[in-house]
Design brief:
The chain is 60% helix and 6% strand. By secondary structure, the chain is of the alpha/beta class. Helix 22 links the parallel strand 4 and strand 5.
Length: 683
């Protein structure tokens, strides 16, 4: 009989890998770049657009601030990349910002970073996928009604690919990332050459004017500064995901730190080049884009029915000869792909960070377990579910989602750079070598600059985005921080409760072992339970049944006497036809009379194999077992009897290797206990 579930699983995620094969999943730089840097690279597709959307709130009067804002973003990118290169070398274990802050600023500050990053990773998936869907709709407007369905489908696809393992996801996503880089660089080069030759391309929206938003018209002084700061904070989306490489250092091939630092430098150079090029072309081609198409002046027809193309789409159409050109479709396809695949940065960063937090007992330990393909499967699935909920709630709208974005990443930037300053202070106090001291002093200056600059950006982001929706990200991070602290307290309390003080006191033997076999009828499972209990040689052994039908009980007593088992059968009266309560009260009465005794309850059970058989058998003993497990001094032992259907359904070879180790036992509902009088239980 074919195990359909196992077959589908193997086809979807591949064969299970041994732990010893972990080394085979390590990444060369060419694969690490698309895996860990696809988010900051793809941010080029919308970072310029976000700057323009904010500036055009005041009409076209403030677009001349665009180059200055873009220059500030580039400078910030350079500072952050240089700062994180220091992190990669100083802390190569993969904890990234969380490890830096925890070691240098304390566990509470480390949890602030962890909570902020986890929230931001969820936002990365939502924003990247929604932006990718936007670019698909720019090429095929007829798909606008399917925005949410498409977004959820892409998240599901990303989840499946990442469950196959880090290396496999890198191989799958490398080509789209490099195609996007190639497409954008060709587009930028072509556009600049045409401009230099006097044939500057013109965007489709160049002929439209922009009416200012009444709330932002005629800005001056402080209000103008705030508008520019808001545009700058929106443009800082270009920096999202920069820290992912520092979290993923263990996934690199040796020398890990050097390869990770080199990959970060390559990522920074490519991202800056593309961002500057796209911004320059947007100004040269006179791209005009607003948050509301009805503020476009000179627009023919109904403004409500007009769908604005993204900045990248307008540039591709202008440079390559229209919306039906091969270049336009190439850039749009590559952009949509890389934006969707940019979520892969989060699919690698979130599970890694969650695994470290679980190892430190701040999250459930299941998040530290590796799946069949040596990926952190539980973390991948948790991230996917959170992102799907966010996309569904916000209808996959980039403009709504973007306000929740980048807050967490700049919290991480600021605290990690401050932590690195303390790290270098400590190192310099202990370092006597002059050359190493000079290197440490330089690194401290870089990190101190990074801390100041990213701290200022964090304040700007909070001030400009808080009331627009960023408050929700703050609340989510605060709730997550509180939850992680609670989980750690729980694990610490359990560890303290289970800790062994004096081993000799814990190893004191009980005065007696009282064994009880639960009996409803005499059949093979009952006799197996009786034989097993006898083999353990308890001090006292008895059978126990609950009388809910006088005639059946009398017949059972006769059969037991004829069995000549030399084990007394005790009958508990149950005038209200209950089973669980009389048994639990009887067991507890034994404990009350002899607290030093241990009571062992043997429950005969049979196991069925077909799904439909679960509906045909009474499962009352499951409830009885759960009640007994809460009774101190009581040991509950299930004695299974496998029916023929269960033996046919059992295919141990088809179970994934290590499934039991990962905490995947046979589900509880597949065990059925015959200890009950055929549906006469009342609970």
């Amino acid at each position: 009989m074919i195990n359909l579930t196992g077959l589908v699983k193997r086809l979807a995620i591949g064969r299970a890998m041994r732990s010893e094969e972990l080394g085979e999943t390590l990444l060369p730089k060419r694969l690490a770049l698309p895996i860990f840097a696809s988010d900051p690279l793809s941010s080029v597709a919308y970072a310029t657009q976000e700057i323009l959307l904010v500036l055009t709130l005041g009409g076209m009067a403030y677009l001349h601030f665009t180059p200055w804002i873009a220059a500030a973003v580039v400078a910030l990118m350079a500072v952050v990349v240089l700062s994180y290169r220091q992190v990669v070398h100083a802390y190569p274990s993969g904890g990234g910002s969380y490890e830096v802050v925890s070691r240098n600023l304390g566990p509470s500050a480390g949890l602030v970073v962890a909570a902020s990053l986890l929230v931001d990773y969820v936002m990365t998936v939502a924003v990247s996928v929604a932006s990718g869907v936007d670019n698909i709709i720019s090429a095929v407007p007829q798909l606008a009604d399917f925005r949410v369905v498409m977004a959820v489908g892409f998240v599901a696809l990303l989840t499946g690919v990442n469950l196959r393992g880090v290396r496999e996801s890198g191989q799958a996503f490398a080509a789209p990332t490099y195609l996007f880089i190639t497409g954008v660089l060709i587009m930028v080069g072509t556009g600049l050459v045409r401009w230099a030759l006097g044939h500057a391309p013109v965007a489709e929206s160049a002929g439209f004017g922009i009416a200012p938003d009444p709330r932002d018209a005629g800005l001056a002084g402080f209000a103008l500064v705030m508008l520019c700061l808001r545009a700058f904070s929106s443009g800082c989306t270009a920096l999202t995901g920069v820290e992912a490489i520092s979290n993923g250092v263990p996934a690199f091939r040796k020398p890990k730190s050097r390869n990770a630092a080199a990959t970060m430098s390559i990522m920074g150079a490519i991202a800056v080049t593309m961002f500057v090029g796209v911004t320059a072309l947007a100004l040269l081609t006179k791209v005009h884009i607003t948050d509301d198409s009805c503020r476009l002046t000179g627009l023919p027809g109904d403004c409500g029915a007009y769908t604005q193309r993204t900045v990248i789409a307008q540039l591709a159409a202008a440079i390559f000869g229209g919306e039906h050109s091969a270049g336009f479709y190439f850039v749009q396809a590559a952009t949509a792909l890389v934006l969707i695949l940019a979520a892969n940065t989060a699919f690698n960063g979130f599970p890694l960070l969650a695994s470290i937090l679980a190892q430190h007992r701040y999250l459930p330990r299941q998040l530290h377990n590796r799946g069949d393909r040596l990926a952190f499967s539980n973390g991948i699935i948790a991230l996917a579910l959170a992102a799907v909920l966010l996309l569904w709630f916000y209808k996959a709208d980039v403009t709504s989602l973007i306000h929740l974005y980048i807050l967490g990443v700049f919290t991480s930037f600021t605290l990690s750079q401050a932590g690195m300053v303390r790290h270098w202070n400590r190192e310099l106090r202990e370092e006597g070598d002059a050359a190493l001291r000079r290197r440490g002093l330089t690194a401290r200056v870089i990190n101190a600059t990074g801390a100041v600059v990213t701290g200022l950006v964090l304040v700007i982001v909070l001030a400009t985005k808080f009331v627009q929706g960023a408050w929700l990200a703050v609340v989510a991070a605060a709730v997550l921080w509180t939850t992680m602290r609670g989980i750690r307290r729980h694990y610490d309390a359990v560890a303290a409760e289970l800790a062994v003080g004096d081993p000799r006191a814990e190893l004191v033997r009980p005065t007696r072992v009282v064994a009880i076999i639960l009996v409803s009828t005499i059949h093979k499972p009952t006799l197996r339970a009786l034989a097993y209990a006898r083999a353990l040689h308890p001090d006292h052994l008895e059978a126990l049944t609950v009388s809910v039908d006088r005639e059946e009980t009398k017949a059972l007593q006769g059969q037991w006497t004829a069995l000549d088992a030399d084990v007394p059968l005790k009958v508990l009266a149950s005038p209200y036809r209950e089973i669980t309560r009389p048994v639990v009260e009887y067991v507890r009465s034994i404990r009350r009379e002899s607290p030093q005794d241990v009571v062992g309850v043997f429950i005969p059970e049979y196991v069925v194999g077909h799904w439909w058989e679960h509906f045909l058998h009474n499962q009352s003993a499951l409830w009885l077992k759960s009640r007994l497990l809460f009774t101190p001094g009581v040991m509950v032992t299930s004695v299974p009897w496998q029916l023929s259907s269960s033996r046919r359904a059992d295919h141990p070879a088809r179970r994934a290797p290590g499934a039991i180790r990962r905490g995947e036992p046979l589900p509880l509902h597949q065990h059925h206990h015959p200890f009950a009088h055929h549906g006469r239980e009342r609970q």
